[in-house]
Design brief:
This is AraC family transcriptional regulator. This protein has about 300 residues and is an alpha/beta fold. The chain is built from 13 helices and 12 strands. About 45% of the residues lie in helices and about 15% in strands. α2 links the parallel β5 and β6.
Length: about 300
């Protein structure tokens, strides 16, 4: 089923706030995932913070519960408290409220959290924004739980991200949630984003944390493991994919990834995916089967070591 990604553009929109997530979902669509991008605004011509005018539609597409509504941020002069929300048509805020009330997900990048707050969607929920705007967001919306020093938050289908480039992290997180970490890693690599960051967690996804090296042979082997991590992958198969001997692969892999063997890398991917499934309600047993373990004992051992 096609997922519509609808960007609500406001005057003064930051180009990277918009382009970063749009590039993530557009690239995911290029890889065969069913995303369809839309851009709406109160007026057809939208001035950006960087001076480039943007063209948008004024009619909202019909939204379903699987669709995503994103508000990119805009330039906020100092002090931010003197600047009103640059949305003047109540229908825009109504659309945000209605989509969430119908079971859909709404998201913001940077100052876009203010639009979610004006729609009443931050009340009682965790949220974040650019570090320069956090105090003002908390003052304007005292019922919101503004979280500091995080890249993004998720709370009851309300997703907010910090400053500008963190919109890429947020979008990759959403792609991973819908299609798995291999899909997000594939998109990130295509965008040359080698350090995807994970919300409040300081570590990056294992698929990207060990990709900062320049060894093409090891990248090819990692590509294979990333896609087939839930399958048995004998060392001979991996060495054949890299065109090297098993001994050479083991030594080069360890050197490129900071000490990991191919098996340990595969287990790390399995563990990360299993933790994601468990956090979304799966049992340990079902998560173990999903990521390729014969039973849950190995998964429990790996979890106890992490």
């Amino acid at each position: 089923m096609t997922c519509r990604i609808v960007f609500l553009l406001v005057p003064g929109v930051h180009l990277l706030d918009l382009a970063g997530p749009a590039q993530v979902f557009g690239t995911a669509a290029d890889f065969g995932h069913p995303y369809e991008l839309h851009y709406v605004a109160e007026r057809e011509l939208v001035p950006s913070a960087q001076g480039l005018p943007l063209q948008a539609g004024t009619d909202w597409p019909e939204l379903g519960v699987d669709d995503l509504l994103i508000v990119p941020g805009w330039r906020v002069p100092d002090p931010p408290a003197t600047v009103p929300l640059p949305l003047h048509d109540p229908a825009s805020l109504d659309a945000l409220r209605a989509h969430h009330a119908a079971g859909g997900t709404v998201a913001s990048v940077c100052a876009g959290a203010e639009a979610l707050g004006a729609a009443g969607l931050l009340d009682g929920r965790r949220c974040t924004t650019h570090h320069d705007l956090q105090d003002d967001l908390a003052r304007r919306h005292p019922r919101a739980h503004v979280v500091r020093d995080v890249l993004y938050t998720t709370d009851d289908r309300v997703v907010t991200s910090a400053g500008i480039a963190s919109g890429i992290d947020l979008a990759l997180h959403l792609v991973a949630g819908r299609h798995g970490p291999a899909a997000a890693a594939q998109v990130a690599r295509d965008m040359v984003v080698y350090a995807r960051r994970n919300g409040h967690e300081p570590q990056a996804s294992a698929m990207l944390r060990h990709r900062s090296h320049l060894d093409d042979t090891i990248h090819r082997v990692q590509d294979l493991i990333d896609v087939r991590f839930a399958e048995p992958l004998p060392l001979a198969t991996l060495a054949g994919a890299g065109g090297v001997s098993e001994r050479t692969l083991t030594r080069a892999f360890s050197r490129a990834t900071g000490g990991l063997t191919p098996l340990r890398y595969q287990q790390t991917l399995r563990l990360e995916r299993a933790e994601h499934l468990i956090s979304h309600g799966a049992t340990v047993e079902s998560a173990a089967r999903e990521v390729g373990f014969d039973d849950a004992r190995m998964l429990r051992r790996l979890r106890s070591r992490s």
